[in-house]
């Protein structure tokens, strides 16, 4: 039996080797090309590392190097969409660091890793052939990071090269660059130091023939004409990267595999659906009384009838073919209405916004709140202030690899299942929610004052969703910030623009005709070719994200989309200004309070308490947090004025005047031992003081291991000399040892009675040092 098992394993290994023989032989000839991008050089190589993968490429800029592998199964997946997984992982070793968790391994995924994975996915997904449902995995491995050049854009180019050099069907390559703007000058792939002073962070992924596949941008109110110029510059440089990858493909003579099956609807089944259901579908899409739910229900009613008929006429058909046949006709009718008749399913003109309503100050206990409604998309936003200590702390690996630092402004986006009349899991965080929240956060961040004294958290909860909830979150967040009294520099609004296009029959990658749609519905996003989100102020652009579902967009279409979105954005701002036109002059009465407390060094130890006990107790009882500003100044944050009042009483009680101010530097006092410890004795100079440690090293000139060696015991009185407070930690400095030498003859005695009335100058006897 064991022999049979070993033979079967050997057969499997032999089959695997034969399957990968052609792949391995293709990659055994290392080749590389270089691209000049301004004053930087980008090197793309393949054939040396990870040669068992279907495709592998290494991209290097100066001392930052990224390797990406691509592997796709040869058997189709039981799916109705392209099963593509992109994983970008930050490796601590690439930055010369060790992870700080207890296992010292990379664990979980950070927000930055997820957002970069989405960036790569959105860049390469549109170029896979329609109906290619084969599990495909793209793994991005950081080999070395120099802290100067960011690896995220390099990873997009490496993914493009890995797919182009593999036998995986893919209509690439693409190229990607980052464009920054410093003092009005555009920089291609700027360094991290240059990006620190840049007013623009634009990532453009371009396809051949100067087409755009993906865009992601954050900007500090950049003017529309400057933004458009930056897009054109970025696309121009992506073409150089595309040419270089195409050169590598020609040199390696890459041949793409022929999939076993491409999943598409059979023509005869599609024709049958056209005859049976096209009129009914058309009637539903031209009935403007429908809303999202009723329209979906009406379409599903026709779907069920048609699918039953198809099962009878085509008993051998697969379930996917039946579903896709109906979807194909449904998509044809919907897109034809817009392309040929300029009609949208809700009756709007192509450039008309949905009805918008705004409201603020919904809940009095909140620091700020707003409800933004656009059609059937509804977002409830709230603002919460907290201390600067509550800011997001980036881990050392993320900081080293991507330059992401602590931030005191954050926007968290939530999309519960009831927003679309569904049932699902709640809690946790998925990639979509993280991506939508990051986009809305980018839109609002440029208008937040840099020196705001609190950490700001905006929550955007989608209560109803029918398209463009991320841009509604930006609008609602802007309203809530003004309601909270945050002095933002300008109001921010966002809108999504969609696309319905018709491809050239002779050249499928070219667009023959198209229509741009302002403020798209969920169905227009689902059945359309683009989701183009733009946010900004009346002056300029603060954020942009373009997701394209076709192999590329001409620059002309991109420029028109920016212009159309800008017009809609200004219209939305006009509606929002009627609700609240500027930030409230004062924050709400129940808002947080910050005060500074000056604590002399002599009282700092008592203020903080042993091991920070007093500060922890203060936070537990009042919710107040205290952070040290400098040697004598502490910043006190209270969530409400009432909490601040409680804290002030607490601090006053701890730091109230006592007899310590009467102690004289260099004087000798009688101290009472209150506790014996291994390392020394705890003593008090007067009854109501906190006991302080007199260390073994200060008890006697002789070296002792325990105070009992000197016959000391609790309640005993000893003479000690006072040397003031330690300037670094504020601890009282006492010594008995210095009094053991004949030179010290000063004695001061404080009885319990005298210690209560230290104000009298004759309360103790003093003699001069001899």
From TrEMBL:
Keyword Membrane belongs to the record: yes
EC id: 2.7.7.8
Topology of this chain in the membrane: Peripheral membrane protein
A Pfam entry, by short name: S1
Residue ranges of the TM segments: none
InterPro entries, sorted: ExoRNase_PH_dom1, ExoRNase_PH_dom2, ExoRNase_PH_dom2_sf, KH_dom, KH_dom_type_1, KH_dom_type_1_sf, NA-bd_OB-fold, PNPase
Keyword Repeat in record: no
GO MF term list: 3'-5'-RNA exonuclease activity; polyribonucleotide nucleotidyltransferase activity; RNA binding
Biased composition (Low complexity): 755-770
Gene Ontology terms: biological process: mitochondrial mRNA catabolic process; mitochondrial RNA 3'-end processing; mRNA processing
UniProt similarity note: Belongs to the polyribonucleotide nucleotidyltransferase family.
Subunit record text: Homotrimer; in free form. Homooligomer. Component of the mitochondrial degradosome (mtEXO) complex which is a heteropentamer containing 2 copies of SUPV3L1 and 3 copies of PNPT1. As part of the mitochondrial degradosome complex, interacts with GRSF1 in an RNA-dependent manner; the interaction enhances the activity of the complex. Interacts with TCL1A; the interaction has no effect on PNPT1 exonuclease activity.
Name of the protein in question: Polyribonucleotide nucleotidyltransferase 1, mitochondrial
Lineage of source species: Eukaryota, Metazoa, Chordata, Craniata, Vertebrata
